[in-house]
Write a sequence for this structure.
């Protein structure tokens, strides 16, 4: 019963586009395919990522860990608790 009670946690991704140097590590290492490199340029002339599938973020924080510029971070999202009947 214990493992049946575990639920995956969702995350909300925040990107500081001006800190990004466009390396693409966050996009490459995201196991849920949440990010994609944009066509727009930031102030440094790089292509920052954008969130293409926010609902897929499982708060693993791999993008946050691997980013050499600390340009993004993930915050946990509390899901509403369902009442048992």
């Amino acid at each position: 019963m214990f493992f049946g009670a575990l639920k995956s946690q969702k995350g909300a991704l925040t990107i500081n586009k001006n800190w990004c140097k466009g390396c693409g590590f966050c996009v490459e290492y995201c196991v849920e395919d949440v990010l994609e490199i944009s066509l727009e340029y930031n102030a440094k002339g790089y292509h920052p990522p954008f969130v293409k599938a926010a609902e897929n973020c499982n708060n693993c924080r791999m993008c946050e860990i691997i980013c050499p510029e600390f340009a993004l971070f993930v915050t946990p999202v509390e899901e509403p608790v369902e009442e048992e009947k």
Summary: Residues 4 and 84 are 14 Å apart (CA to CA).
